[in-house]
Amino acid sequence: MKNSTRKTEATLPVLRKISASAVMGALVSGAKLDASGLMEATGLSRPTVLAVCDELLKLGWLTEDGTRPGLPTRSGRPSRRFGLNARAGYVLGIDLGATKLQLCLSDLAGTIVAEWSEKWRDEHLGAPERLLVARKATREVLARSGVDPSKVMAAGMAVPAPVRPNGHAVALESYLPGLSSLDLRLALRPDFNWPLIVDNDANLAVIAERWIGVAQDVDDVVVLLSGERLGAGIHIGGRLIRGGGSAGEMRFLELVEGVGNTDAIGGMCRELGAIAAADILDGERPGSPNSSELLRLCGGVPAAVNAEMVIEAARKGDPAASEVIDIVTERTARAIAVVATLLDPQLIVLSGGPAGAGDVLIPSLDEKLKGLNSAHPRLAASTLTDHAALRGAVRVALDHAFALLLD
Questions:
Q1: DSSP assignment of 113-147, as one string?
Q2: In the sheet that 90-96 helps form, which strands lie side by side, from edge to edge?
Q3: What does R_g of the chain's alpha carbons equal in angstroms?
Q4: Band of the pLDDT at 356, cuts 50, 70, 90?
Q5: Measured between alpha carbons, how far is 242 from 251 in angstroms, rounded to an integer?
Q6: CB-based burial label for 10 (10 Å; 0-12, 13-18, 19+)
Q7: CA separation, residue 267 to residues 13, 25, 52, 325 (Å)
């Protein structure tokens, strides 16, 4: 009997925590629900729902309204409606990208209340200085939003490299100097002592796509980062695939005929577009410089060409830009074919800066895949563009915050 009592005492708090987590999850979208709505959303009984809501109200995590909108007022006690107190706490998302820093502050409903973005002063800037810049930006964002640091419950950070469980990234010194020697879990200290969850940017991108992107309710999906370097976030069989931390790294593409490296759509468009623009100016390509949409967009300066200019010029029928897109998508389709054949996902999502050009890229990629002997999953362009990893960092920070508050 004693053992039975101890088991019950140990189990009840666990069950209550699970119930509270279910209630919070049902309200995190911003909806306000009464007991019946929460019962339907969570599968919990009415007494359990009300008991959990009363506890969360005392802790300050929920709000309560005594009316139900759209219904006439009745005599007697009004229906109790509960909502998440989204401003009871905050989380921080950081994307320590290869070319720029992105940072945002989110409330507990996932609503962004402040953002920050800046390019690194040097693409080879050392990791210690990058973290100093990130901490300075964090202070600035908190000051601008009027949020006290004590209200921040957790932070998530995306880095463009695999991250081991010990907090160290697997990054070449020539690519991100000093990154691999740092325990990134301590990256915000000594300025801030929040829990910091650090992960590879592709992993966080696939988390974001399944949360608020184009892969919601898709169990088998691969997010392909398509900015500067190819990397994959893999979610197969309903779970994120990490391996030892390096799952989704694409260096094997060096062995694939017609690919040869991990250069991605954004970087290739920029480099090949600049070469094409220079050839037009030098008369190495047919057509007049005055009729070139690509040259018009870059102001006649080939070195100023970026991926967005190439894509926009191709969208308007510029021959040189269209040729660049053809070359880039041919190569990228081969990379997609390898990933699709190995993993057989339902969906592959293009993420990163060029993802906003799905109208140009997806038809071309689909056409190229038809000519390859491989699986051909559905392709989609991310609606989160280059914010996917950042939003994924917010999502893991929110998960950690909810786990903390339920403790």
A1: EEEEEEE-SSTT--HHHHHHHHHHHHHHHHHHHT-
A2: 112-119, 100-107, 90-96, 152-159, 196-200
A3: 25
A4: confident
A5: 16
A6: exposed
A7: 52, 39, 51, 12
The token pair at 34 is 């009464």
Residue among 186, 152, 151, 156 nearest 168 (CA): 186
Spatial separation of the C-alpha atoms in residues 261 and 41, rounded to whole Å: 47
Three-state SS across 156-178?
EEEECCCECCCCCECCCCCCCCC
Each residue of 210-227: pLDDT tens digit? Answer: 999 999 999 999 999 999
Give the separation between CA 166 and CA 67, rounded to whole angstroms. 50
Alpha carbon dihedral 117, 123, 125, 127, in 10-degree steps, equals 70
C-alpha to C-alpha distance for 91 and 404, rounded to whole angstroms: 12
Q: Which residues, in sequence order, are bridge partners of residue 112?
A: 106
What are the pLDDT digits (tens) for 306-345? Answer: 999 999 999 999 999 999 999 999 999 999 999 999 999 9
**Nearest-angstrom CA–CA distance, 21 and 115:** 28
CB 206 within 8 A of CB 240: yes
Q: Which residues pair with 163 in a beta bridge?
A: 169
pTM, two decimals, is: 0.88
Q: Tokens 């940017």, residue?
A: 201
Please tell me the distance from the alpha carbon of residue 171 to that of residue 298, in angstroms, as a whole number: 33
Buried b (16+ CB within 10 A) or exposed e, 287-300: eeeeebbbbebbee
Q: Which residues pair with 104 in a beta bridge?
A: 93, 115
